[in-house]
Each structure stands twice: as structure tokens, then as C-alpha cells.
Amino acid sequence: MIKYIAGVAFLVAGLSTAAAETHSRDVPARKASVVNGHVYYDQNQCTSGPIAQVKVKVEPKHGSVQIRRTTYSPPKGRRCYGKKFNAVVVVYTPKKGYRGKDAFKTSYSMPKYVQGSQMNYFSDTYKINVK
Prior knowledge:
This protein has one helix at 7-13; strands at residues 3-5, 18-27, 33-42, 47-48, 53-58, 63-72, 85-94, 100-111, 119-130. The chain is mainly β. It has one domain (3-16, 24-130): Immunoglobulin-like (Sandwich), CATH 2.60.40.
């Protein structure tokens, strides 16, 4: 699951200065899983926006988190299909043999689409169920 904001929707989002979201995810044991992603692009011009600067704020107790840069392509039927945009994904890996609940937090920032050097700041909480 990758979040994206495009065109006018991105400009509206740029007006807020902070936001928080909670994500609940079921993930398989013994395997790394992408639990979230961030991609920002201009849907009208099909160009990449800023890359979110993501950091782990609170580490999980029963696994590890990696922040990886990657690319995202909109699915068939969507505007900009076939184009690739810079993206960041959050990858959770449970400890070997662990099954049960885990949690961690990330924070991320990106420039606002307004004059000056203002930034948007966000934080996400993850509630993980390792099956």
C-alpha cells in the first residue's frame, strides 16, 4: 500500500503542518513485509515530487524496521500509468520464530508546496500482528 497525493490534492495537503496516522497490519512470520509507502507526484505533469525523509522514531520490540528508497508506478487505468516516481517504503521484519503483537513509530517530513522553506511533519504509529 503506497500513499500518493497528486495535483490539487497535494497543494491542499501542503497547508497542514503536522499529522498523525495509525496503521494496523497483519504480516507473515519469517518474512520482511512492506507495511507502508510514501510517493508524491504531480498527476497533471507526471513528474516526481519531493521524497519523504522517513525515520524510525520508536523501534519495535520483536523485529526490525528498514526505510528503503524505491520507485512506484501507478496501476493500469490511472493517469501517469507506465511512469516511475521516487518513493520510500517502510519494511517490517519480525524476529525469527516470533508470532504475536508488535508496534513501532516513524516520523517523516517533506517540503510544503508554498514559498519559503517550510516543512510538513508527520508521524505514523504501526500496530503489527505477526501471524
